[in-house]
């Protein structure tokens, strides 16, 4: 019988769901098959789901940070071996508040005016500032999400006024 063997928060907006058997990709990556009903925390929903290479776990990216207790339901996820075998999971799970800030895993120059920044977890876009190492402002820099999970962004410098050969610090 296909079963959920674990549900754990990886960070504020990602939850790993583990199964005892390999699961079918299409049903496993259907966000509607995962519900997170708050009991005393922030309301959140499954935005996207990615099946791991082992095919026995998924990472669910949530619409809002998860913290405190949730009634977690997993349904309609099918076994890879037997399509008619589906999981039924309905348990209260407590998620500790994530107090670890995301980190930058790396950067990649995409073009002469764009740099891709990869974060350790999904982050929300927002106001960014760019300054030269001496503290003066870089004007015209824009930030664009390039991934649905929002763990990758591009910094677009095409409209920025950038001095040649000066280090830029982005926060």
Give a short overview.
With about 170 residues, the protein is mainly β. The protein has one helix at about 25-30; strands spanning about 5-10, 15-20, 35-40, 45-50, 55-60, 70-80, 85-95, 105-110, 115-120, 130, 140-145, 150-155, 170. It is elongated, with a radius of gyration of 20 Å.
Alpha-beta content class: mainly beta
Q: Could you name the ranges where pLDDT drops below 50 across 5 or more consecutive residues?
A: none
Q: Give helix and strand order, one letter per element, not per position.
A: EEHEEEEEEEEEEE
Shape: elongated
Strand order of the largest sheet: 1-2-5-4
Averaged pLDDT = 87
How far the N terminus sits from the C terminus, by CA atoms, comes to 49 Å
Radius of gyration: 20 Å
Quote the beta fraction.
over 45%
For the biggest sheet, the summary is:
4 strands, antiparallel
Q: Kindly state the percentage of residues in helix.
A: under 10%
- Helices, by number, come to 1
**How many strand units?**
13
Characterization of the model:
There is one protein chain. Helix content is 2%, strand content 46%. It has 171 residues and is mainly β. The strands form four sheets. A four-stranded antiparallel beta sheet has the order 1-2-5-4, with no helix packed on it. A four-stranded antiparallel beta sheet has the order 8-9-12-11, with no helix packed on it. It has a three-stranded antiparallel beta sheet with strand order 3-6-7. The termini are far apart. It has one helix spanning 25-28; strands at residues 4-11, 14-19, 34-38, 46-51, 57-62, 68-78, 86-95, 104-109, 114-119, 130-132, 142-145, 152-156, 168-170.
